[in-house]
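Hi there,

I know you've been waiting on this one. I reran it after we fixed the sequence typo, so this is the corrected version. Both the input and the resulting structure follow.
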Amino acid sequence: MGVAAGDCVVVEDSLPGIRAGLAAGMTVFAFQPQDLDPRIPAEVTVLKSLLELHGLLGLDASEAAAAEGIR
């Protein structure tokens, strides 16, 4: 897609996916709505809700709505 891995984020709920994102050099968010997997590396931000992602990415409400196709 022509985007450098360092300019990408990945949201994953599996440990292999989390590890793959880190290995690729991406910013990784672990979606863990229930119990936290203690094997998740310390450099990964854990999300309990996907709604947290907007604030972490610095999106305001209108940008977040546009990203989701909401008007």
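Quick highlight: The mean pLDDT is 88.

Best,
R. S.
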